[in-house]
Specification:
The protein is mostly beta strands. The chain is 10% helix and 30% strand. It contains four helices and nine strands, in the order E-E-H-H-E-E-E-E-H-E-E-E-H. The strands form two sheets. Strands 4, 5, 6, 7, 8 and 9 form a six-stranded mixed β-sheet that branches.
């Protein structure tokens, strides 16, 4: 899913910003307020910190709205060593790893190392989160009560994670991944998961078929 990618170039690093993927998590502003200032114009000043610090803070962006490219020959962002899906309390699924999000026909929507996926069913940018969970009053603590352990204990650092958006149904996750609950605790590892994106499942974050009952309609 491509948005309007704005590029802010400094002497040693350039920062890319995709507004369509931003849900104002605020990691950038808290991390480097001298570089990321929403009240300033331009709001990103890449020369306001060292390239190393900018790369480190950009990597905290949970949605992938921010990325960067070193111009000084230094290392850019690396893909995380393990695929992880974190269930945010009252919010989206934060995914990190070698991620490919595809539609029901297998067409790529997002190929990245970070993404925020809607699990409340209200986003206008499905399958991506757009922050609508707040207005929708989505209330879920992020508890994972039905862990699966069909993945090896050791992470496969080379394996990718494919997340398929079934038509009017759940996310089908294929590939080794860990599931992290809303309390930042790793609950389980799995090779395959079906995760709710309609917001109605009684077994969140897992799908229980409630999308049929509530008449969930997906954009992808």
């Amino acid at each position: 899913m491509k948005g309007k990618n704005q590029i802010y170039a400094g002497a040693e690093v350039e920062v890319h910003y995709d507004a369509a993927r931003c849900i104002h998590a605020g990691e950038c502003v808290r991390g480097l307020p001298g570089v990321f200032d929403p009240k300033a114009r331009p709001w990103i000043k890449p020369d306001g910190a060292t390239p190393e610090d900018i790369v480190e803070v950009v990597d905290r962006c949970p949605t992938g709205a921010l990325s960067c490219r070193r111009l000084d020959g230094g290392p850019d962002l690396d893909a995380p060593g393990e695929n992880q899906i974190a269930v945010a309390a009252g919010g989206p699924l934060y995914v990190r790893g070698r991620i490919s999000v595809v539609d029901a026909n297998g067409n790529a929507i997002v190929e990245d190392t970070r993404a925020a996926l809607c699990r409340c069913g209200a986003s206008k940018r499905k399958p991506l989160c757009d922050g609508s969970h707040t207005a929708a009053g989505f209330d879920d603590a992020g508890v994972i009560e039905s862990p699966s352990t069909d993945a090896p204990d050791e992470a496969d650092t080379e394996a990718g994670l494919t997340i398929s958006c079934s038509t009017d149904g759940p996310f089908g996750v294929q590939g080794p991944h860990t599931l992290v609950d809303g309390f930042a605790e790793t609950v389980c590892r799995s090779q395959s998961s079906y995760l709710c994106r309609c917001g109605a499942s009684a077994s969140k974050p897992f799908c229980d078929g409630s999308h049929n009952r509530v008449g969930f309609k997906s954009d992808n």
